[in-house]
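Hey, quick one: can you model this chain's 3D structure?
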Amino acid sequence: MNIAVKTPLMADKIKELLDGNTFDGVDFTFLEMKGMEIIFSVTGDSEQIAVAATKNAIKATDYGRGLYFSIIVK
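Sure thing. Here's the predicted structure for all 74 residues.
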């Protein structure tokens, strides 16, 4: 499944954070950037777990706590 993180800021930092890493059992592989979307291929058992893992990973960073972003399943 693919997910997209939509944000106007810090796209490069989010790509660097997630690409090639595993959070909460979800593996992230960067696919492409389209405008404000950063698209990743993810492995995992559920869309909800993948979205939660993405949100938690970003929010755990210094910049993520105050960053406006949304996550959608593609």
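One thing worth noting: Helices lie at 11-18, 47-59.
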